[in-house]
Design a protein that fits this description.
about 650 residues, mainly beta, Tachylectin-2, Chain A, Jelly Rolls, nine-stranded antiparallel beta sheet, eight-stranded antiparallel beta sheet, globular, disordered N terminus, DUF4185, DUF4185 domain-containing protein, signal
Length: about 650
């Protein structure tokens, strides 16, 4: 499949390859059993023999994190005893095994009595009250370890469950005892069950803990919050990704990746310099992977990590082992329902691909051969996949719609950054009687059109291009469709969506809603937005800083790839008395300067340029400011940051 994808990417001809390569998982295999007894006839290693040693006959999840150098915690979910009775909501193992090629060995499991793994987080075990408490993520900061857990009210249909709240528990005694924080909780709405932060994955990065989250169950999108490492239990210290920057309040959160996503894991791979996200896509019945150059994305389309037909095990989750974070071998723990409810160590090899800048999942329909349904593609009207019929532009498959009447379209939702430009491309051919074809971007569920191109009969595959601006939206729907008049059809292949190169959010201040700077812009000293005052370089708005003393600046956190070269530009003008202005990039919170240029009086807008290397940093601060002496001001507009 990888060969086909690479051929397709080359054929599309619209995707760029960054210095940090995007990734495709290949060669997924099962290495060893992690929990449970060895079934009759199974030949895989089973180093832990948890049924005999800890009375753990069945369990799931297996969330792994480093608790100290070379030492790991592994948290499991609902647990059966050796007789198959549900006795515990969760258990915890420790491991110092650093050679995963022959399996993952425990040092021990936390025990309440010899030979009986302890339930570390209590639950009422009452249906429609608190059925169970299940860990979803773990992280250690200093000597204190944290578990994110969900309190399950009741189980629903397949892939659906309903939580009272999610919260954080902590341990100061090497995992022997855990305390549920009474304040670090995200309470669910028990009428709509729609809190976005009920299941989580932790990522410790650059002094923060990033918390990727989904609603309860497996059908939600992925959201993001972060908190300073030492403030994990302070619910007021969490900031939520609003699509461009960080805001207070869970309601501010916008998706960073489209679900359907369940049982998620996120890590940073230093070998490839890529962030990796894994989860179960219940619609596809497949464990998938996305990757990105920064923790906020843009995240690639989904790539298959474990196919839905993988030996018929009913598999879910892929919790990555930290030992995978420094090389191409990806080890992860996967849960299965069959032949028994337990966990297994898996291995895949990560290889560079050329699809990372493409936000489309399954852009050429090639993985459809492995799934009985069309997700992540969906259809309005009548349509499907031409599999191995010789109709594809590249590879073996393509999408199609065909009907005698009405609107028929093939479509996919993606996450976009608000107020950002994108380019959509795809190859289309149609029946000779088509006169009302449309290719474009719109709001989800056949909503308002953002931008589209109209086409008639296309007897041969023809590349169509649509440029669109995301506006205030975080999710859009891409589509190719037609109004049928008699037997009318359309075939689609090799679709791509690529974001503009500028990494600055609200770069021209046009999307700033008030005269006060709002996310993603922030102020040092006295600064704000000139709205509709005629001071802008282009458009209606610009940023400004103005005061009679001290340092006053406009600034923004931007996410970058480590050890990469960037160019920052902006248009600036000042009051006549300015003689101490600075424009540049520095580490966060007024940290060390990476590069800056000084400027004095600029009576007209002047283009300033700074080149810098990001060093080992994943994010940094760009700024334009001045040291005021008397009433001093600067105005800045049209920022641009691009990777060289």
């Amino acid at each position: 499949m990888l060969t086909a994808l690479l051929a397709v990417s080359a054929a599309i001809g619209t995707l760029t390859i960054g210095s940090a390569s995007a990734l495709t998982p290949t060669g997924t295999t099962m290495v060893a059993r992690v929990t449970g007894a060895t079934p009759s006839g199974e030949t895989m290693p089973n180093p832990n023999q948890t049924a005999a040693n800890y009375n753990v006959g069945g369990t799931d999840l297996g969330i792994v994190w480093e608790k100290s150098p070379g030492q790991y915690f592994i948290a499991f979910g609902d647990t059966n005893d050796s007789a198959g009775n549900w006795t515990r909501s969760n258990v915890l193992a420790t491991s110092s095994d650093t050679n995963l090629a022959d399996g993952l060995s425990f040092d021990t499991m936390i025990q309440s009595s010899p030979g009986f793994a302890k339930e570390i987080l209590s639950s009422k075990k009452i249906n429609n009250d608190e059925m169970t408490v299940i860990p979803t993520a773990g992280v250690t900061v200093g000597s204190r370890s944290y578990i994110h857990y969900m309190s399950v009210n009741h189980w629903g249909s397949a892939g659906r469950w309903y939580t009272n709240y999610s919260g954080i528990a902590y341990s100061d005694d090497n995992g022997q005892n855990w305390i549920k924080s009474p304040s670090a909780r995200w309470v669910n709405n028990t009428t709509t069950w729609d809190s976005r932060f009920q299941m989580a994955a932790f990522l410790k990065d650059s002094g923060f803990v990033y918390m990727y989250a989904t609603p309860n169950g497996r059908f939600g999108d992925v959201y993001l919050a972060r908190v300073p490492e030492n403030s994990m239990l302070d619910i007021g210290a969490y900031r939520y990704w609003d699509g461009n920057g960080w805001a207070t309040g869970e309601a501010s959160a916008r998706p960073v990746a489209i679900g359907v996503a369940g049982e998620m894991s996120v890590a940073y791979n230093t070998y490839f310099k890529r962030y990796i996200m894994t989860y179960l896509n219940e619609d596809r019945q497949t464990i998938v992977m996305r990757d990105a150059a920064t923790p906020v994305g843009p995240w690639s389309g989904e790539k298959i990590l474990v196919p839905g037909n993988f030996t018929g095990l009913g598999q879910y989750n892929a919790f990555m082992h930290p030992l995978s974070n420094n090389g191409p071998d990806l080890y992860f723990i996967m849960s299965t329902w069959y032949p028994d409810y337990n966990t297994h160590l898996m291995k895949a090899t990560l290889t560079s691909d050329m699809l990372g800048d493409n936000l489309i999942s399954d852009p050429s329909f090639e993985t459809q051969a492995q799934t009985p349904i069309m997700a992540p593609w969906y259809v309005t009207g009548e349509g499907g996949i031409d599999r191995n019929l010789g109709y594809a532009r590249t590879g073996t498959n393509n999408g199609y719609v065909r009907n005698g009447s009405g609107w028929n379209a093939i479509k996919q939702r993606i996450v976009v950054q608000p107020n950002t430009d994108y380019t959509l491309k795809g190859w289309v051919k149609t029946s000779s009687n088509n006169t009302e074809g449309y290719f474009g971007a719109r709001l989800p569920n056949d909503g308002a059109v953002i931008s589209e191109t109209h086409f008639g009969s296309l007897p041969n595959y023809t590349e169509l291009t649509v440029s669109f601006h995301s506006g205030s939206n975080s999710v859009v729907e891409l589509y190719a469709g037609l109004w049928a008049n008699g037997d009318t059809w359309l075939q689609l292949d090799d679709v791509s969506v690529v974001r503009e190169a500028n990494l600055v959010g609200h770069a021209g201040f046009e999307s700033q809603p008030t005269s006060s700077l709002t996310s993603p812009w922030y102020a040092n000293g006295n600064a704000g937005v000139d709205r509709n005052l005629g001071f802008a370089h282009t458009g209606s708005n610009n940023g400004y800083a103005r005061y009679d003393s001290g340092w006053n600046a406009i600034k923004q956190e931007v996410f970058v790839e480590p050890n990469a070269n960037y160019t920052l530009t902006a248009w600036v003008r000042t009051s006549s008395n300015n003689n101490d202005g600075y424009f540049g990039a520095r580490l966060m919170n007024g940290g060390a300067i990476l590069s800056e240029t000084p400027f004095a009086s600029l009576p007209n807008y002047t283009l300033l340029t700074v080149a810098f290397n990001s060093g080992n940093n994943h994010s940094l601060e760009i700024y334009a400011g001045m040291w005021a002496t008397g009433d001093t001001w600067i105005q800045a507009d049209d920022f641009r940051l691009t990777k060289n």
